[in-house]
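Supplementary Methods. Inverse-folding protocol.

Structures were first reduced to a discrete structure-token string of length 365. This string, shown here, constituted the complete conditioning input.
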């Protein structure tokens, strides 16, 4: 079997309604734009797709397919995923590929593999579980009462925990951290994501508040450029750190966080930021060898497959971005996400796809 065509498609992606915001200094939800779909086809008639949804995705993907991906992939065996994954890293040395594009080819090839075997990709990966609890991962709201109300709604809807994305103000965030713990009690798992808003002194200040409030993990308080800084943070606070989310280098970078003693809870795994399915699985197996967690990052269909295939992950991350909480469609009333059942990975439903992509769109039960 050989790859015979590599194509990009554009699909309109509407703005989130209502719009939401992140911490001070970061952009909020994206305006309406165009996403990109990568499709890889073969002489056996089997194809695989991957969805690229970041701002500017369509233009970026069109360029990469024409200039890099198609010339490299035509004629290759789509089942040699390991070789192709390594080849993408070679290409990155010269082209400096944007981080979210490093895993697109790999994700499409894993989708192709699932379709070839008539199985969901998580089963082709081996499969570990068939359901996983979800936590509500908030955007940034305006006040402590707003956050507490969102937490109440989320728990009533079945979510099994709450993760805060707060304001990026150490003193104000620490006040929210304590208020939420007092409000929900000791039994609800709570997490906090600093969205890289702090330097080391402020990260320590917030970390001590999280330790006092018994939060489950502390995520990305600083940009992940200085692993040394994260090692110092880990030694200064008791709350466990979840690290290596947005840093380049997939499992190779995650390994350095672990060796510096910075990954006291674990590391992040995702298709978007850790080099596709293959990179995420490498990261998970690395973490497992040190008896650490590999928590799957982000709300999308490929990451649902990762959640079912990775043994050392705990939750599915489900974004909650409005003050009127609406439970994500894949999360049931008990706060569980169930394993996908269709072949391959699938594209998200609800978008205006070209006709030729309709067979790849997720079909809701």
């Amino acid at each position: 079997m050989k790859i015979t065509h590599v194509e990009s498609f554009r699909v309109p992606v509407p703005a989130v309604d209502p719009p939401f915001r992140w911490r001070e200094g970061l952009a909020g939800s994206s305006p309406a734009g165009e996403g990109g779909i990568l499709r890889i086809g073969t002489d056996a008639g089997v194809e695989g797709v991957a969805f690229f949804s970041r701002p500017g995705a369509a233009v970026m993907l069109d360029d990469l397919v024409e200039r890099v991906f198609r010339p490299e992939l035509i004629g290759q065996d789509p089942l040699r995923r390991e070789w192709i994954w390594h080849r993408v890293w070679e290409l990155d040395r010269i082209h400096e590929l944007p981080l979210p594009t490093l895993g697109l080819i790999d994700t499409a090839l894993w989708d192709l593999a699932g379709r070839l075997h008539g199985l969901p990709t998580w089963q082709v990966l081996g499969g570990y579980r068939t359901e996983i609890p979800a936590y509500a991962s908030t955007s940034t709201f305006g006040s402590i009462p707003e956050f507490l109300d969102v937490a109440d709604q989320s728990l009533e809807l079945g979510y099994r925990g709450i993760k805060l994305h707060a304001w990026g103000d150490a003193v104000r965030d620490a006040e929210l951290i304590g208020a939420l713990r007092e409000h929900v009690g000791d039994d609800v798992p709570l997490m906090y994501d600093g969205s890289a808003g702090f330097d080391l002194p402020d990260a320590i200040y917030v970390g001590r508040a999280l330790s006092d409030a018994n939060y489950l993990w502390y995520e990305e308080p600083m940009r992940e450029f200085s692993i040394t800084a994260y090692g110092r943070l880990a030694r200064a606070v008791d709350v466990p750190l979840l690290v290596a989310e947005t840093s380049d280098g997939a499992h190779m970078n995650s390994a350095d966080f672990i060796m510096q003693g910075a990954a006291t809870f674990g590391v992040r795994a995702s298709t978007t930021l850790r080099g596709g399915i293959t990179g995420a699985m490498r990261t998970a197996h690395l973490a497992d060898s040190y008896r650490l967690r590999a928590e799957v990052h982000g709300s999308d269909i490929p990451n649902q497959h990762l959640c079912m295939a990775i043994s050392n992950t705990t939750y599915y991350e489900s974004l909650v971005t409005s003050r009127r909480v609406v439970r994500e469609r894949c999360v049931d009333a008990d706060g569980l996400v169930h394993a996908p059942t269709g072949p391959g990975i699938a594209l998200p439903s609800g978008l205006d796809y070209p006709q030729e992509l309709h067979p790849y769109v997720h079909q809701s039960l």
